[in-house]
Write a structure and sequence with these properties.
With 455 residues, the protein is mainly alpha-helical. It has 18 helices and no strands. α4 runs antiparallel to α12, α4 packs across α17 and α5 packs across α16. It is globular and about 80 Å long. The two termini are 20 Å apart.
């Protein structure tokens, strides 16, 4: 496959010229592009599931994320492809792997759009609590589709601004939280809850900690696309260093922000309808912060959802061009700025499905969709690791690290079965994977085998 996928959670696209990036620039791009509503809002579910130990979940997820990034960067340096990591899956294991990888990534992005759409609606209820989720979801979906239809050339520059807003919002919380803890606001309220026992650190036990891993991994989602940007480095050998620095920065930001949040509010006060950072500062009655922070997340989340809509539309066109999707989805309307209307139509159908589910399941839909999207992302990460094991000549240590990455991914996926409140997301993802697998088996027998014999 020969395309570049925008980050599924950030919206950061391919705006850099090939070969002009320094390693530190790629690191900063990765930080800005990876941070998304999965961290701003999804982490609240992780805290609810495990408590203050969510900090350790994010550290373990960072290790798994580095394994994926490092292998993808090495494959990209060895065989540069301005396109999908699914190319490497197809190269390593055949057309079924490329097909499965592509459709799995398309499905994960559809679910991510639904997750973002639901998150935006939940955040908007902060100001308008009596308006149903599906009404907000419909409004944001229409706005997003409108942006895609206009083909706004300045959208990439706006995305860069949104990346700054997301990062600035977290830094703002860290500074304000530190000031609140040290009593700089001269307020009577000063709440610090330091977990000084294993019971307080792991209030939900090992099962809760296990279940929280998926939300930590989800917050690092999008890193697979940054790995492909290694082709744009001046010195390709700097890719691993750029990844290490990027992840160190992300871990510092994530762990510091979450660490402050979990010692400023009781474990039971966190919930999926409010960012954990707003919850943490609620006792301090800072009237401006919830509104400013909520607005920043909504702006960033909308950019993410819209960029994902661009991404799945482009992806389906490429899948159709490669024979992995019906040819109708490769058609573009010349009178509408070469818009791939059939591909966009299928993506819009996914948005409509999200609106309907938000109407039917307003209380649980965010947990379900976010969990399923996170699992599908990890399936693609597993594809990256097993492709690297076959295509790269790894030494014993490199293979060991790769297997550690696979083990962490399996732990995150299996952990979703342990928690009743998010278990449905696991089954949703399994249904998607089984469906894709069945279709690939049929195509293998009826199409691809015949094509290979004809050659």
């Amino acid at each position: 496959m020969d395309f570049f996928l925008p980050s599924s959670k950030s919206g950061c696209g391919n705006s850099s010229n090939e070969g002009d990036l320094k390693w530190w620039q790629l690191s900063l791009i990765g930080v800005g592009c990876t941070i998304g509503t999965g961290f701003f809002l999804g982490s609240a579910i992780g805290i609810k599931v495990t408590g203050p130990s969510i900090v350790f979940s994010f550290i373990l997820a960072a290790i798994g994320t580095y394994v994926v990034y490092n292998l993808l960067a090495k494959m990209t340096a060895k065989d540069p492809q301005d396109g999908s990591f699914c190319y490497y899956a197809k190269k390593a294991y055949g057309q079924w792997a490329g097909f499965s990888c592509g459709w799995n990534y398309w499905s994960s992005n559809i679910l991510i759009m639904g997750s973002q759409l639901t998150a935006l609606s939940i955040l908007s209820q902060f100001w308008f609590p009596n308006i149903p989720l599906w009404i907000f979801a419909t409004g944001y979906a229409i706005l997003s589709i409108g942006v895609v239809l206009t083909g706004n050339k300045g959208f990439d520059k706006v995305e860069d601004l949104f990346a700054i807003i997301k990062t600035a919002a977290i830094i703002m919380f860290i500074l304000i939280a530190a000031a609140a803890i040290f009593g700089w606001f001269n307020l009577d309220t000063k709440q610090v809850i330091v977990p000084n026992s294993s019971q307080k650190l792991f209030p939900e036990g090992f099962k809760g900690f296990w279940s929280s891993l998926i939300y930590a991994f989800y917050a690092y989602g999008g890193i697979e696309v940054i790995g492909l940007m290694a082709t744009r480095l001046k010195n390709k050998e700097d890719a691993p260093k750029a990844g290490v620095i990027m992840l160190i920065l992300l871990v510092i930001i994530y762990v510091l922000a979450l660490g402050l949040a979990v010692i400023m509010a009781a474990h039971g006060s966190f919930h999926h309808k409010e960012s954990p950072f707003v919850t943490a500062l609620a006792p301090y009655n800072l009237a401006f912060f919830p509104h400013v922070f909520n607005g920043a997340i909504i702006v960033a989340g909308f950019s993410t959802m819209t960029a994902s809509l661009f991404g799945v539309t482009t992806l389906l066109v490429t899948l159709a061009g490669d024979g992995d999707a019906p040819k109708v989805f490769a058609k573009k309307i010349k009178k509408m700025k070469e818009l791939p209307l059939p591909s966009l139509g299928l993506a819009v159908a996914g948005l409509i499905a999200s609106i309907i589910t938000a109407l039917l399941l307003p209380g649980k839909i965010y947990e379900y969709i976010t969990t399923a999207a996170g699992i599908l992302i990890l399936f693609n990460w597993a594809f990256i690791i097993i492709s690297g094991l076959k295509l790269l000549e790894l030494k014993a240590w490199g293979k060991t690290i790769s297997f550690i990455g696979i083990a962490l991914i399996l732990a995150a996926v299996s952990g979703t079965i342990m928690e009743k409140s998010i278990r449905m997301g696991f089954f949703i993802s399994i249904i998607v994977v089984l469906l894709i697998g069945m279709i690939s088996l049929v195509l293998q027998k009826k199409v691809w085998n015949k094509a290979s014999r004809a050659k």
